[in-house]
Design goal:
Blueprint (H helix, E strand, L loop, with lengths): L2 E7 L7 E9 L6 E2 L1 E3 L13 E3 L1 E3 L10 E3 L1 E2 L1 H7 L6 H8 L8 E5 L19
């Protein structure tokens, strides 16, 4: 599953209009985002145990869409990331094995996709 991002378009008043993009793996394989949470097995699943997606600076190419991007991990590394007993230095090392930007492709989608309530099947269609 890919994600949507936004790029500012210049010259549209004090709050620039933004262009959403559909970002996905070139081979349409699932993406595994590295995330951090305070949740532990056996704990209640509630707002207090939410999560934050780990991001890194975007490199050449994707920087045209956004200045940062989620760290995406290959499936075997993602399974290691899920180990609650993994020491922090080893976890940081796993983040260095994230997929490069060459693994992704992206295209602009209709601006209505920028609204989180937009759920029509054409949400990923290029414009």
């Amino acid at each position: 599953m890919g994600g949507d991002e936004w790029k500012s378009l210049d010259g549209h008043g004090p709050k620039p209009e933004k262009q959403p993009f559909y970002i996905h793996a070139k081979d349409d394989s699932p993406l595994f985002f590295a995330a951090l949470s305070n949740w532990r097995p056996g704990a209640e699943k509630d707002e207090a145990h939410g999560f934050a997606i780990v991001t890194n600076d975007a490199a050449v190419g994707m920087i045209d869409v956004h200045d940062r991007r989620p760290v995406t991990l290959p499936p075997d590394i993602a399974l290691q990331w899920l180990d609650f007993e993994l020491p922090a230095p080893q976890a940081i090392g796993l983040l260095e094995q994230g997929l490069p930007e060459t693994h992704f492709t992206w295209h602009p989608v209709k601006k209505a996709v920028g609204n989180s309530r937009y759920e029509l099947p054409d949400a990923i269609d290029p414009v």
